[in-house]
Each structure stands twice: as C-alpha cells, then as structure tokens.
Amino acid sequence: MELELAARQLEALGNLTRLRVYRTLARAGRDGLPVGALQQRIDVPASTLSHHLHRLIQTGLVAQERQATTLVCRAVDPAMNALIGFLAEGGHRKWSAGPGSVSA
Amino acid sequence: MELELAARQLEALGNLTRLRVYRTLARAGRDGLPVGALQQRIDVPASTLSHHLHRLIQTGLVAQERQATTLVCRAVDPAMNALIGFLAEGGHRKWSAGPGSVSA
DNA sequence: CCCTTATTTCTATATATCTAGAACTATCGC
DNA sequence: GCGATAGTTCTAGATATATAGAAATAAGGG
User: Fold this and answer.
1) C-alpha span between B102 and B80 (Å, rounded)
2) How many angstroms separate the CA atoms of A71 and A87, rounded?
3) What are the residue boundaries of the HTH arsR-type domain, all occurrences included (chains A, B) (predicted)?
4) pLDDT tens, B67-90?
5) Which of A25, A27, A24, A41 is nearest to A73 (CA)?
C-alpha cells in the first residue's frame, strides 16, 4: 500500500466521530447500516454525519449502496485489512493474518 | 484500548510527514534515531519536525531519550501493537498476532 | 404531480493544524 | 565560562477541519 493512501485512511479514522461511525459499521458486518440508523446510534446532526461519511468513503474504508430511499453503508474489509497490514509491516516484522482477516 | 486514545493515535499517524517519521523510526528498531538523523531522512525544517515529533510522543507512539547532546527517538512497539489490535478487533473478528508482534 | 421520508449539498463560522523562521535552551569539550 | 552542536519553543500566517442549520435532491407512494 502506498504511504499516501495509508495516511489519508489513518486521518479519516483519526476523528472520534468517524472512528465511531466506522466501528459501528464494522460491527454491523456485511448487512451494513442505513445512514439513518447510523445517525441514531452516533447521535450527530445529519449534515455532520454525511460530511464524515463522505470522508470515510473517499478513502475507500466505507462504501454506500442505495436501496430504494435509504443509503446503506458498509465497512470495506479489504481496505482495513490492507491498512492493518501496512501498519504491521512497518517495522519489517510480520503479522500472520488469520484466515478471516478483518476490520474495525 | 479506549476509543479516544486510538483516535488520537490514528490522527497522529494520519499525516504524511508524521507517518514517514514514524515508519522511519519503526524501521530503525530498538536503537532508534537521533532527531538530527531523522531530519536528514525526512527533509523537513527542524522546527516542523520537532512539532510533529511532539505529537507522536503525546500519543505514546514514540519516545525520546536524551543521550548527551542528542535526543534519540524510538517507535514504541507496544503502542502500535495495541492500536493494530484495536483496529483488528473492530469487527469482532480476530487477528492472530504472531509471536513477535510489531510496529509500523 | 404532490407529499413524505431519507440524505446530501450549500453555507457560514469557529477552531485546529501545518509550516517554518527566529529566538531560546541544553549539553559537552575546552 | 565560552563556543559549538542539537533541539525545542515561540510566533504568526495560511490552510484545513468540524459543526450544524437551511436549502436542495432522490425515491417511492398515493
């Protein structure tokens, strides 16, 4: 992974609200969560949440998919796995990624 | 690990210059590197570097130790391991940490 | 079409960050 | 103590971020 992408993703996660959003999505798993459901759990104005979601999406950590009138958000596991891999290999030592890698 | 600390550490790493600094230190290993050596490798004004180092230190990702007139900086592995662990467990799935954990 | 629900985009403002020169501090060797 | 070397702290300006209300857009139902 390239340094720049990693930095942008780390920055995206480096905000309390966004980290909460991301974790909530990560825990929601494959089904994801509609923006509205996220808003209830995170308790932040819609416009603010949308702004933060946008940043997470830009970095590839989160994806959105429209389902009728609601937008379902999902944590993108491969992105997180790559980021974790990047951090873990930093010192040139390795982490063994268990069979099912992951996200958070 | 608590969410807040994780967010601050992620934010600290979420800057290209700081991420470079951190990685350089991580690769330098236990011996660490004097601030001056870092400056040569990263190529950034001393005051700017110092500012970034300060932020990394505040979050516990980096430590400094005085050796005579030079300040030696080191990546704090346990901090990075905890952060990686935090990210990896986010989705409630696990990562197997190899024997020698890590840093990056 | 119009209404409702869901969510984004626009806009403004307050606050924080980044950058880097200049001045200051610390430590050593003489 | 002096001077040289190594870094930090001070300062300031430019830029970026976070927050949130208000207006706009999207989709479905009647």
Assistant:
1) 7
2) 31
3) 1-95
4) 999 999 999 999 999 999 999 987
5) A25
